[in-house]
Amino acid sequence: MLKGIQRSRSTNNWWQFSLVGPHRDPRVERNILDQRAAVEAITPESLQATARRYLRRDTAWRLVIVPEAGTVLHGGQDATPRGG
To answer: Which of its termini does the chain have fewer beta carbons within 10 Å around, N or C?
Structure first.
């Protein structure tokens, strides 16, 4: 992650956002200044605790996208689900 932060800071897009962002929302400046320290503060234990909090079976869900009957995929394959 730290390498990604460093890479992104070498792009014009990052600097453009960073220079304009604080004018729109003062919290952006603090986030920019604290970003590296925040990432460095992540520990395996804190990451596991976050995963236990948010990645729970009782709140998980799945999205299944099923093509309409008669839909033909690129290459001529029928995308209609079997048995449907």
So the answer is: C
What rounded mean pLDDT belongs to the chain?
83
Beta bridge partners of 72: 78
Percent of the chain with pLDDT over 70: 89
* DSSP for the chain, written as a single string: -HHHHHHHTTSHHHHHHHHHHHHH-THHHHHHHHHHHHHHT--HHHHHHHHHHHS-GGG-------PPTT-B-TTS-B-PPTT-
Euclidean distance between CA atoms 54 and 17, whole angstroms: 29
Bridge partners, residue 71, by sequence:
none
Rounded CA-CA distance 39/33 in Å is 12
